[in-house]
Design goal:
The chain is an alpha/beta fold. The chain contains 9 helices and 12 strands. Strands 3-2-1-4-5-12 form a 6-stranded parallel β-sheet, sandwiched between helices. Strands 6-11-10-7-8-9 form a 6-stranded parallel β-sheet, with helices on both faces. It is elongated and about 55 Å long. It starts with a strand and ends with a helix.
Length: 251
């Protein structure tokens, strides 16, 4: 059996391929929302520690680890790579390509703290699309300026409430969003700054950026984490190539 670590659109597509090829797999995602993306009998829907991941792999006779997590999920990538190395099994990971709009009006940052410092020197409404994991950094920011787009699930709404985001400033919807949907949202909330991640095509990055630029909104982009030197494995940037690899190595 293989372990598929996901929670992304690519993981869903890969799971559909595995089902079609009758390849048995255990699916692991950090949330119930991520787990709901696939149809499989063997699913873990909670964030796992290093030791928990190691026990899962050993306890289920996992022979390969396939990592199709989000570009910013650096902790699980590092843990999965180390578990695979310790147990002597292959670690195969997918990196979402960056085919992004280039424009000198886009401002890039390495950390959320840097974005907040920039915003403190500005005026106008801010549209956050970086998820609720880093929302804690904004707890002391002026909540009148913050508008948060997040998943319509209890845990995400709760995190917004914990940092005192106003109910009318929470946009709880499933994405990705089209160019037109972004235009409507940005206009409705009179947005001046867009805070987003460099999430790639599957995350609707270009649609957000282009909509912002066309409305003279300044995009503030959180860069992807630098790849860890500790991660050892087989890297793929094309989903079809990854599927071909799995088809010939697993079957």
């Amino acid at each position: 059996m293989i372990l598929l670590i996901g929670g992304t659109t690519e993981a869903r597509k890969f799971s559909e391929f595995l089902n079609k090829e009758n390849i048995n797999y255990f699916y692991c995602a950090a949330s119930q929302t991520g787990a709901s993306l696939v149809n499989n009998n063997y699913i873990s829907s909670q964030k796992l520690s290093f030791s928990e991941l190691k026990d899962l792999v050993k306890g289920n006779g996992i022979t390969h680890i396939f990592d199709l997590t989000h570009p910013y999920a650096s902790e699980i990538k590092s843990n999965a790579s180390q578990v695979a190395e310790i147990l002597g099994i292959p670690y195969i990971f997918y990196t979402r390509p960056s085919k992004n709009i280039t424009d000198n009006r886009i401002v890039f940052f390495k950390t959320t703290e840097e974005i907040i410092k920039y915003c403190l020197k500005s005026a106008g409404n801010i549209f956050l699309t970086t998820g609720t994991k880093n929302l804690e950094y904004w707890k002391n920011f002026n909540k009148n300026r913050l508008f948060v787009r997040t998943l319509p699930i209890i845990s995400s709404i709760k995190k917004c409430e914990e940092v005192k985001i106003k109910p009318q400033n929470i946009i709880a919807e499933f994405g990705p969003f089209s160019y037109d949907e972004n235009i409507l949202a940005f206009k409705h909330f009179n947005i001046k700054y867009l805070v987003t991640k460099e999430s790639g095509d599957e995350g609707g990055y270009n649609e957000k950026i282009q909509a912002a630029l066309d409305l003279d909104i300044i995009p503030l982009v959180l860069l992807r984490p630098e790849p860890s030197s500790e991660i050892n494995g087989f890297r793929f940037t094309d989903l079809k190539d990854l599927m071909n690899y799995a088809k010939h190595k697993i079957n």
